[in-house]
Amino acid sequence: MPRFDYVRAGSVAEALRLLAEPGLTSRPLAGGTDVLVYIRHERAPFDRLVDISRVPELKIIERRGNEVVVGGAVTYTEAAESPLLRQVAACLVEACLTVGGPAIRNMGTLGGNVVNAAACADSLPPLTCLDTMVHLRSLAGERTMALSEFIMGPNRTAIRAGELLTHFSFPVPPDGARQVFIKLGRRNAQAISRLSIAAIGRLDGQGRADYVRLSPGAAMPTPRRLTEVEAMLLGQVPTDELLIAAGVRSAEVMIAVTGRRWSTEYKEVAIQALAERVLRRVLVL
Amino acid sequence: MLIEFTLNRKRVAVEAPPDITLLTLLRDYFNLTGTKEGCSVGECGACAVIMDGRLVNSCLVLAPQAAGSEVITIEGIRGPDGGPNDMQENFITYGAVQCGICIPGMIMAGEALLMHNPNPTRAEIRTALAGNLCRCTGYQQIVDAIEATARSREGNR
Ligand code: FES
Ligand code: FES
């Protein structure tokens, strides 16, 4: 007896119908790179997988006015190769290129990364920096919420049974803003993030920061922008002193959220250095 | 369930359970044992095959996910005479093979790279092999062999 069944959806409407079918538990299957690892060790918590990886509506990457829309089943490779995302979401592209090796990037999806919501998920810092909204659909209708609200904790999100993450949207960052993503792992290739950080920044004509976004990954239970640090920099010339202070403040904010834990000794100095470095790269170098 | 796809350029149809991996399908249902099982969790690349022109780890693909796709395994990589192709010859020439268990995955990663980027730098070759572990060779010779293949294919174009 197979442990579960498989069915492929051709459209979002069909996927929603299959997910809501009574009498059995169905779960979406996107790239499968997390689900297949999970079911090697655990009993499958579903009776059927609904393959959404080829649904055209979930594969879009497009600009709609001042917004960018990215489908939930877009793979890391597709995101990284998209001319639009390379242009307006460079920190997301960089993050996608650090996920796994090529074979993982070819299957794994942004929607899967976010719904799985591992604390170390590489797409979360850039998506948070970009002020991403998550769009959900079920037979009951549509819901939209900020990514930072959608993720409720490590491996916990606000998604409901029968709901599908159809797409993300975020405003196009201002012209000339620089974006950087940095990740610390145990080795260079295929590493799981120990800590990561994304930043977007721009200077005005007088050399003062007029746009700053900063978001660390694997640092706090839910992703969020370090608005306290952004506020320190806005309207200021990013001097060495200020950047060092911004690093220190980033560590303070993290510890205020997480408290002191076994990993804090490492993460405190690491996030301080990473925040300073990433801000330097978007605002100075 | 019936799974139909193109395997090494031939249309195939096989009756198999929906909860097995593509790796199991290839090895146990088609007896294509060139594709190796290392870790089964996407860490080693020994099971790599090319699906619809992209490198994938077959241990992380559900067999029915391959339905309608075009899959190429190491058995589908060969020269015009049925012997080794130029990349496989270069692996031999450059001493890129020791125990051999990682080699089918390495060749698939190399071929997938050259499909998309016929003229890669050494750094790009290393990036393309980032998901493939080798415990024997130290990678240097593998990079050399793929680089030499790219150069000679470019020259023959
Ligand atoms: S067996 Fe598939 S990656 Fe190791
Ligand atoms: S040749 Fe032995 S693992 Fe690569």
Helical proportion of chain B, percent range: 25-40%
Anisotropy-based shape of chain B: globular
Q: Work out the strand percent of chain B.
A: 5-15%
Q: Report how far the terminal alpha carbons of chain B are from each other.
A: 44 Å
Helix content class of chain A:
25-40%
The N- and C-terminal alpha carbons of chain A lie at a distance of 60 Å
- The CATH homologous superfamily name of the largest domain in chain B equals Beta-grasp domain
Domain count of chain A: the total is 3
Task: Kindly provide the name of the CATH class of the largest domain in chain A.
Answer: Alpha Beta
CATH topology of the largest domain in chain A: Uridine Diphospho-n-acetylenolpyruvylglucosamine Reductase, domain 3
Structural class of chain B comes to alpha+beta
**What oligomeric state do the depicted chains represent?**
heterodimer
Read across the widest sheet of chain A, the strand sequence of neighbours is: 4-5-10-6-7
Whole-angstrom Rg of chain B = 15 Å
Reported CATH architecture of the largest domain in chain A: 2-Layer Sandwich
Number of helices of chain A: 12
- Trace the largest sheet of chain B across and list its strands: 2-1-5-3-4
User: Order of SSEs of chain A, N→C?
Assistant: EHEHEEEHHHHHHEEHEEEEEEHHH
Note the main sheet of chain A. Answer: 5 strands, antiparallel
**Morphology of chain A:** globular
Please write the string of helix (H) and strand (E) elements of chain B: EEHEEEHHHH
What's the short story on this structure?
By secondary structure, chain A is α+β, with helices and mostly antiparallel strands. Chain A has three domains: 5-51, Uridine Diphospho-n-acetylenolpyruvylglucosamine Reductase, domain 2, CATH 3.30.43; 56-171, 2-Layer Sandwich (Uridine Diphospho-n-acetylenolpyruvylglucosamine Reductase, domain 3); 194-283, Enolase-like, domain 1, CATH 3.30.390.50. Chain A has helices at residues 12-20, 35-41, 76-81, 83-88, 90-97, 102-107, 110-116, 124-129, 147-150, 227-233, 240-258, 264-283, and strands spanning 5-8, 26-29, 48-51, 61-64, 67-71, 133-138, 141-146, 151-153, 156-157, 164-171, 178-184, 195-203, 209-217.
